[in-house]
Every structure is written in C-alpha cells, then in structure tokens.
Specification:
Blueprint: E1 2-6, H1 13-24, E2 28-30, H2 31-40, H3 44-53, H4 61-72, E3 81-84, H5 90-102, E4 109-114, H6 117-125, E5 127-130, E6 136-138, E7 157-158, H7 165-179, H8 181-188, E8 192-196, H9 201-213
Helix pairs in contact: 1-9, 2-3, 4-5
Bound molecules: BIS(adenosine)-5'-pentaphosphate.
Residues 7, 9-15, 31-32, 35, 52-53, 56-59, 64, 85-86, 88, 92, 123, 126-127, 136-138, 141-142, 162, 171, 200-201, 204 line the site of BIS(adenosine)-5'-pentaphosphate.
C-alpha cells in the first residue's frame, strides 16, 4: 500500500498516518518530522531547513526530495509507506512519480483531508507535541493522561513554534498557493480520494479505513 496524505496544515494527516501505519505495519514518512529531527539535532540540513520552517515557508524542493528518495529506497518501504506532508509542490510530485517509476511501483491512493478553516486554526492552536518522541496531542481533543506529559515516554509536551497564529496564517497561504494545485494534479491521475476530516479522531479513522478498503 503506497499512500500520500494531502491537506492543509492541521487537518489531522499526521494523527491518521500514525494509526494507519501501525494498522498495516508500513512506515509513515513525515517530511515535517524528519526536518524537525534535523533541526533538534542541529544537522546541516536541519539548520538550513529551520530558517524556512520558522517563517512558515517551504523548505527547498531538492532538500525534501533527497530525504524522501532515501527513505522510499530503503528496505523498510518495500511493502509500502504513507507519505505525510510530501509532496507539497508540483515539482515534488513529479519527482515522486519518477522515483516510483524507477522502482516499478505505483501510488495507490492520495487521501485528501478536508476540514473547515476555523477548525484548522482550532486544531493547530491547541496542538502539543512530545519534545522527545514527537507524539501529538491536543489540549481539548486528544489529551494526555497526565497534563503536559507524553503518554508514550513521559517527556514534556511543547507547542510547535510554527503553530503560533502569525505563522499559521503564512502556512495556510503557502498551502493555498503551492500545495493545493496538487488536488487537480492527482485528480487527473485518478488516484485522489476526498476525506471528510471533521469529527473525532476515531470517526475520521473509520471513514478513512472505509475509503481505503474500496479498490
Ligand atoms: P508538517 O509537519 O508537515 O506540517 P503540516 O503539513 O503543516 O501539517 P501539520 O503537522 O501541521 O498537521 P497535520 O495535518 O499532520 O495535523 P495533526 O495530525 O498534527 O510541516 C512543517 C513544516 O516543515 C512546513 O511548514 C515546511 O516548512 C516544512 N516541510 C514539511 N514537509 C515539506 C515538504 N514536503 N516540502 C517543503 N517543506 C516541507 O493534527 C493537528 C492537531 O489536531 C493535533 O493537535 C491533533 O491532536 C489534533 N487532531 C487531529 N485529528 C483530530 C480530530 N479528528 N479531531 C480533533 N483534533 C484532532
């Protein structure tokens, strides 16, 4: 199963990708997580990426394409993968298509998550992430057992710096300009499936699994 999860910041792609990846025992490849790990470890790539991420802009295509190509080419992705947050530009989508062609495999589905803008802002402003294992919570919707602590590893939960209101506005604008053209791009390739991302995490999961079970 080779999937792309597409949609605006905060629609719930990462949350659902985590659950689907566990269910089907395939890796979730999140370019956002890979980049944030680079930032935290202060790698050269992380330091380059940081300047774009803090402003809510996109990291240059060649950087993220390189990251994804390396992952997809690894043995753990032989049985499939979920791409969360990649591709985000037409150039990245074309590069993905070439990578898959070289491996003689195809993309099965692009799940396009849709929720109202007001809900996007609510989800992003309340998001908290684990400072160590990157698990994701929400102050109202997905609460940890102990306030401010990760259920998985006990580390402190923090707010992502790009979830501040001004940066969220830039991210939404960048999404509209650079990423939303991918909706038509994948519609034309007949692989796009639109998913209503409203409701609880469990309700969205149910809808998503139902869509995936249709051939
Ligand atoms: P990235 O980390 O990919 O951010 P994003 O796409 O903006 O997506 P988010 O992580 O914000 O949201 P999500 O849809 O995963 O929602 P989540 O499940 O967390 O990218 C960050 C930055 O890295 C980019 O801005 C860019 O700079 C750079 N970057 C990354 N990829 C790149 C690329 N390909 N090219 C160039 N640059 C790139 O949910 C959000 C919140 O809602 C959470 O609190 C969650 O608990 C909660 N929630 C989830 N589902 C529900 C539900 N059903 N009901 C209630 N709450 C819910």
């Amino acid at each position: 199963m080779r999937l792309v999860f597409l949609g605006a910041p905060g629609v719930g792609k990462g949350t659902q990708a985590e659950m689907v990846a566990a269910k089907f025992a395939i890796p979730k490849i999140s370019t956002g997580d890979l980049l944030r790990t680079g930032v935290a470890q202060k790698t050269p790539l992380g330091l380059e990426a940081q300047q774009y991420m803090t402003r809510g802009g996109l990291v240059p295509d060649n950087v993220v394409i390189g990251l994804v190509a390396e992952k997809i080419g690894s043995p753990e992705c032989e049985k499939g993968f979920i791409l969360d947050g990649f591709p985000r530009t037409i150039l990245q989508a074309d590069a993905l298509s070439e990578i898959l062609q070289e491996q003689e495999v195809v993309l099965d589905r692009v799940m396009y998550f849709v929720i109202p803008r007001k809900e996007v802002v609510r989800r992003l402003s309340g998001r908290r992430s684990c400072s160590t294992c990157l698990a994701v919570y929400h102050i109202d919707y997905v609460t940890p057992k102990q306030e401010g602590r990760c259920d998985e590893c006990g580390a402190a939960l923090v707010q992502r710096s790009d979830d501040k209101r001004e940066t969220v506005e830039s991210r939404l604008m960048v999404y509209k300009e650079q990423t939303s053209p991918l909706i038509d791009y994948y519609k034309e390739k007949n692989v796009l499936a639109e998913l209503d991302g409203t409701g609880s995490v469990e309700q969205v999961q149910e809808r998503l699994l139902a869509l995936l079970s249709r051939s």
